[in-house]
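Notes to self after the Tuesday call (sharing in case useful).
The group wants a holo model before anyone commits to mutagenesis around the pocket. I volunteered. Ligand is 4-cyclopropylbenzoic acid. Logging inputs and output together so the record is complete.
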Amino acid sequence: MSAMGSPQATGSNSSGGRPPAAIPHLAIDPFSIAFFDDPFPAHQALRDAGPVVYLETWNVYGVARYAEVHAVLNDPATFCSGRGVGLSDFAKETPWRPPSLILEADPPAHTRTRAVLSKVLSPTVMKQLRQHFTAVADATIDGLLARGSFDAVVELAEAYPLSVFPDALGLRPEGRQHLLPYAGLVFNAFGPPNELRQSAIARSAPHQAYIAEQCQRENLAPGGFGACIHAFADTGDITDKEAPLLVRSLLSAGLDTTVYGIGAAVYCLARYPDQLARLRADPTLARNAFEEAIRLESPVQTFFRTTTRAVDIGGSEVGEGEKVLMFLGAANRDPRRWAEPDSYDVTRKTSGHVGFGSGIHMCVGQLVARLEGEAVLSAIARKVASIAISGPVTRRYNNTLRGLETLPITLTAA
Ligand code: 8QM
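Result:
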């Protein structure tokens, strides 16, 4: 890595005249159950091995330090998305579904679709949703306080986004049971052809059929995100063919991510009662408390890029057409960047975390995610006195998403 922290084109001076450094080869499989169960020692090994590593299990490069992850995210011309952001290289393999017009696209095509989704999910639109999202969060927490003990994954982390996001999108009520399985499939499919990916794809047909149908204009209620996307086909910003695929992006990325984000935040508050106390003392910390949970747990753990040319990373050359795995979760806990990286601190300066990515592809739905997270944590701050873990916590395994299968908790009212 150069002093400026940005990957350099190879050629003269690319490594200051020094010979290229050997790239450490590691046997770590970041898509194995053992890794998912406890990724943190492996994250440290990946960061400490060097600025770039080679992962022998899948024949890809990896970056796990904050500086390199940030640099790769912010050089989309060298580290492209158009060949896929999973392990599969779309230049060599047929994608499992038609590529996303935003996630798996590069400028200039990406710039146009991104502009449309930015307008659909703009601050103005969030203002219109805030009152409803807040009221539903308050009612959800009131209902859970009345129950006392429940599974926070199903009854809160899944229930709340399911009660606001599909309606905001304009989906009909029937068939919504396909939404979470479809998203689980999308995130497993970014991974290698392991059991998680292969079994998800094998079971995918009914979920894919449901999603394709709901993306059609006639199935999206007026005033929702979906209808709003289709309206941009009338103004010529996108074509009639592109609109359904952009709706598909919201159905792929808009629900499970916030489920895992809210789950992460509740899990943090349950494990750090002192931080719940600080949040209760100042409920305006809700938005930052959610952001800090995104940093600490990094619901989206990894993404790939593909090199468009030979490039110097940290003094080592990586050739053209190579997959580079970015460990967002490891970067978000890199002690080179963060003080007390493994602690949950609701007053931490979280800006610069890469849990939503960084650069031109940074989460286009981040305002919706933050609105949901803030609404839930604000309701907890105002209404909940304590959160106790009251049963066995189990992990859910996914090639890209980090989160829990079950989180039994008991709430007491303020
Ligand atoms: C992940 O389909 C898509 O456009 C899409 C799918 C998944 C994501 C983003 C976009 C990053 C949240």
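Two things stood out.
The chain has one domain: 2-413.
The CA atoms of residues 311 and 318 lie 5 Å apart.
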